[in-house]
Amino acid sequence: MLTISKTLKLIFLSLITSLMIVACSASDTTVQQTSNSNPSNNDCRTIEHAVDTTEICGKPEKIVVLSPHYLDLLLSLGYQPTGYGFPYAAPGVFQPEDRFNNPSQQIPYLGEKVTTQPVNVGLGGEPSLEKLAALKPDVIFGEIRNKGSYDLLKQIAPTFIWGVRTVGGQWQETIKDMAKILGDEEKAEQAIATHQKAIDQARQDLASVVEKSPKLLLLGMNNLQDQVIVIQPNTYLGEVMQGVGFEIVSLPSVKAKGPSIPISVEALPQLNEADIIIVMGYSQDTDETIDSSSEKSLDSFVKTSQSKPAQQSWQNNQIANGLEASQNDRVYFTTYHLWNGLNGPNGTQLILEELRDFLL
């Protein structure tokens, strides 16, 4: 009898949870229909995205973003997040359980622009459906990695998933769709113009550097013992650097279908024509424990620790040290999170600021 009783309780709890999600959805639908009965709010838009065509009505207020990229675009449009999913969990690094109540320390690079205290909905690739359902967002913005959970996410709120953020020109299309969803289409053009203005200014500032050292190689890695990726010219980052005036170095014999080419350290001499090399580290390991009582958190971990393994392995590798850029002290180390994780107007400005620090 005890076993049967426990089983019945579990079934009952499962039914209650399901009913709560359905009730939330029904409640949201009722509210939306009521507000849309007002002619001033009766503006429904249909948006085609990477996995579906989705309709959204009214003006979304509670917005969830499941990656730094969408956070960048959202902030560029002048909106603040209600919920945020962080891209990865770093061992030993403090992450807030419920809310990002100190965004400047908890959200790398973009935290100072976040004026809300967004709910932490878990890892962006695998967000907590329970937290999302409780939050009752008006819209969810997810990346292509959320494709597998799309059918579940769209039951909670209209969900939009676009193509690979690192592909050249993709973010401009995405931000236009986002602005349309949010009912502020003109803000997308303003954000794109801000992005271009930052590039044009950097082109002026770095003209003398580019003239002397025009060929730039962009690499991403954890360390040289693992796979190294070569960023292609037809990418977000390639377009930004070409806008500044650089020529992006790649392997001429390889026709890459994607935004990057994986190589081994032995292939580096084939890229020796590069005058300048930017190495983006993406390590998620840390030698120290960072908790809520420490001044250090996700922000400091990413900014100070993520590129260290790449830098150390480069300095200890004979092949890497033999490259002309190494011989001329023209290799610079940064984080993949900043240079190829934000992929939007805010990220562009931060990248160009760091580029000036490196080269001027």
Tell me the Rg in angstroms.
23 Å
Q: What fold name goes in the CATH topology slot of the largest domain? A: Rossmann fold
Q: What is the C-level CATH assignment of the largest domain?
A: Alpha Beta
The end-to-end span amounts to 77 Å
Overall shape: globular
Please give the largest β-sheet.
Answer: 6 strands, mixed
H/E series, N to C? HEEEHEHEHEHEHHHEEHEEEHHHHEHH
Helix content: 40-55%
Q: Output the structural class.
A: alpha/beta
Rounded mean pLDDT score = 86
Care to count the β-strands?
Answer: 13
Which architecture of the largest domain would the CATH scheme give at its second level?
3-Layer(aba) Sandwich
Number of helices: 15
- What's the name of the CATH homologous superfamily of the largest domain? Nitrogenase molybdenum iron protein domain
In total, how many domains does the architecture comprise? Answer: 2
Low-confidence stretches: 1-41, 288-293
What's the topology here?
Blueprint: H1 2-36, E1 44-48, E2 53-57, E3 63-65, H2 68-76, E4 83-86, H3 103-106, E5 119-123, H4 129-135, E6 139-142, H5 150-156, E7 159-161, H6 170-182, H7 185-205, H8 207-212, E8 215-221, E9 228-231, H9 236-244, E10 247-248, E11 260-263, E12 276-281, H10 298-305, H11 308-315, H12 318-321, H13 324-327, E13 331-335, H14 336-341, H15 345-359
